[in-house]
Amino acid sequence: MPNLFLLTLQLAVVLATCRVVGWLFRKIHQPKVVGEMFAGIMLGPSLFGWMAPHASSYLFPASSLGFLNALSQVGVVVFMFLVGLGINPRELKKHGHAAVVLTSHVSITAPFVLAAFLALYLYPRLSDDSVRFSSFALFLGAAMSITAFPVLARILDEGNMLGSRLGTVAIACAAVNDVTGWCILAYIVVLVRAAHSPTSIWITLGGIVVFGVAMIYGVRHLLRGFERAYGRKGALSENLMALMMLLVLASALFTEYLGIHLLFGAFLMGAIMPKEKRFVRYVLDRFETITITLLLPLFFAFTGLRTNIAAIRGPEMWMYCVLIILVATLGKLGGSMLASWLSGMPAREAAGLGILMNTRGLMELVILNIGLDIGVISPTVFSMMVVMALVTTFMTRPLLAMICPKHGLDTTGEKGEAEGVEASTRIESGKGAVA
Q1: 10 Å Cβ neighbour count for 113?
Q2: Domain spans of the chain?
Q3: Suppose 85 and one of 52, 270, 408, 409 were both cysteines; which one would form an S-S bond, judging by CB atoms 3.0 to 4.6 Å apart?
């Protein structure tokens, strides 16, 4: 049985630390979620464990981390459902112009290719024969290709940029990017797990295809019953909310059983839910508070406990870490900027879009934890990638303020305003999810 006193103490310390550090980061014009990410790292061996090792070992003994991880994973499952809920495929089609299409594809391809080349250099130095080079390279590419849709939404909202052309294009690109990135990651996870499974990879892939088709063309239509019930009464009963949560958990369990990961099923269930704006807002209001306020900080803390920046020892190891940051930034920021500029965006807005697409945030931490869990990256590479996620997310606001101050953006066009209102409504989930 877990030590309930210790578990309660852990919850209190994590919650208090994340709220205080998040508040301090708001004072320096950073989204609160960035502060909570840093707070999680501070609670681990990188700071707290280094400054007060005895207190750290008492508060976070190895025997207690399983319970902390279990609670944090429940939070991430619900969070991924909310992220999927905030992505509306029909709305994305309205933004299918050249800037979105080209930038979305290049913002995935450029960092992926550069990361693959970087893997050639890092693999013999930071990995071993227990991990296939192809798995290492593919995962590195996927991890560097992701954009944090919820954090990006919050940054745009706080900067009053949702009504601008840049804000609208950035949100559309980030949504497409996330869907594509998670599909790529799902394929990589299947490949890695299939190498250690007696089940044929073709049977696994076949099961995934059948499950996906059943969800999109079958379950999605049944889910409209939730929307109709909400439309009749303006609310959902406790039984219907419980049923919705059971469906999320069932979808997560299916994808875990099929060899992908719990989170993919939760994300897919959110993506196929009805997208009527008032219904989406209602569901978010029911799930967000406990998930965002308590459970996600536990995930940040658990990530921090797995991150040991002290493991990056010496000039050589820090050179590898800097290389990861540079390649990630060059591929994401540079590739997105060049693609949007070639598609006709003004140079300043193209640079702003590149900066926004380089935001990784919480989504990156989720992916890195998956990579560490399936053994495709080592704890040292995990720590380096966490540093990369923190740096690229932290740099977004100051760089954006220099390149695209809010009063310099195009917010006057009638079309831009209309699209901005749609984007603002559509990403209320992102806004709440990083509040």
Answers
A1: 14
A2: 4-433
A3: 270
